[in-house]
Amino acid sequence: MERVSGIRCCAALRSCFPILTWLPGYNLTWLKMDLIAGLTVGLTAVPQALAYAEVAGLPVQYGLYSAFMGGFIYCIFGTSKDITLGPTAIMSLLCSAYIGGDPVFAVVLTLLCGIIQAGMALLRLGFLLDFISHPVIKGFTCAAAVTIGFGQVKNILGLKEIPQQFFLQVYYTFHKIPEARVGDVILGLCCLFFLVMLMLMKNSLGSSEHEAPLLVRSARRLVWSLATMRNALVVIAATGVAYSAEVTGHHFFSLTGKTAEGLPPFKAPPLSETVANGTVITFSDIAKVSDSSMLFGHILHSFLHAGSKNNYRIDANQELFAIGLTNILGSFVSAYPVTGSFGRTAVNSQTGVCSPAGGIVTGVIVLLSLAFLMPLFFYIPKASLAAVIICAVSPMIDFRVPVQLWRVKRLDLLPFLVTFVVSFWEVQYGIVGGVVVSGFMLLHIVARPKVKVSDHGVLLLELDSGLNFPVTEHLSRLVYKHDLQVSPRRCLVLDCAHVSSIDFTVIHELTELLKQFELRGVSMIFAGLKVLLSAELPGFRHTDRVDKALQLLTSINHYQQQF
């Protein structure tokens, strides 16, 4: 008995702290692969974090503040060896709609998101994310990618004072094209060109490199490494060009500008803020504004758990807890909300990471950048960061989705299009609109299940799903239309072979129908009804002969012989 209790205790500990499942078997080979993967992801994470802070409307250092905590927390509480946590393009876009460039709002939002995410995980509410359909996710992702990508065109062109609202942004971007700075345009286009070329080179590498000569394999590995670190290489090169221009007195480019130096202080997140005119904004005031933003932070988390990855399953509730704890502790280092990054997770997997310990290496790279490289970030051109963002979000625009939806189920285009179109008005309303539309579609299926009506002297209604309260009116209407209101009166057979659930409202309605049949001197028979369901229907006529007929005979003439 004590042994069984000990085994259960160990299993519970491993469930709460997944690090205990892989740490005992850790070895030098894993360490080598984790170091390589962590370094590669770190060189990708640093320029992306700087760029995503621009999307969120925050100083660039806040992107780095948000990029290191996830590696340490996820190593202990995460269930996937590949997933990396940090700032993402979509999360940054959602934050920008709420924080308005105010770091205090960003930090409070991080704390609130973390508390709700951790609370959902502890209450095992991860299943709620299953109610967000794939068309909604795809519509939201595509619209967010277009919004984010076009939002960076102003930095490629060197334009200023462009509104954040998408339609106004489109109008004023084209309106101000004559004010574009030549230096920013040339540098931005060059950065885009090199990023696209390196990405194409990486994608063109064949998978059969083991069959190639040693020299060819080495060249492919070099190209793959350079292409994987393309963001860092392009930003470093652009920074070198901008620095050379600045020291010679030529101000050709729009630069990131002065940034805070050093590591962020570890302190409790601010729960209020005093603005310039002396007005105090309390925590409750901030929280009231953040409700919708927090909701969408949770929704974005479902992107991380859309399915299996690399032939193993991940625990959605445990992942939700890891992200929630990351956000809670991240608020103590001035981070804005984070989630799983698809791009960096793919890089992590492709470089052969063996355990979540690779995230520690990534976190150290970010901390070193904060400690020693912040003065150099002054010279990073905004056009180069814009190019990094555009190339990062472009794969999220999938033109195949509408075609696939059309081929599989055309009605699924409706939630996709609603989400896609409304997201350009307000990104948070887009996904709400899509969820509402897909919810109504789901309710319509429940309320109007397919019912096959056969009439050969005996009326047969074949139900293809459960009987729940929304279907009562529809079922009654069919019975009255095809039997009770016609002459001559016939027996009714309800084929319940596919009915797996039934509720009180349906029982009450069926009881009333049974009384109507008894008054008219005809029978209402339930066939194929499961034993558990028949126990819920006292007084209903249910015979083994009818069940046997429905299970073994396929012709309606056989039904007539039985009755």
From TrEMBL:
The keyword Electron transport does not apply. It is a multi-pass membrane protein. Its main location: membrane. Keywords: Membrane, Transmembrane, Transmembrane helix. Residues 457-530 form the STAS domain. One of its GO terms (molecular function) is secondary active sulfate transmembrane transporter activity. This is Sodium-independent sulfate anion transporter-like. It comes from Sinocyclocheilus anshuiensis. The gene is LOC107704413.
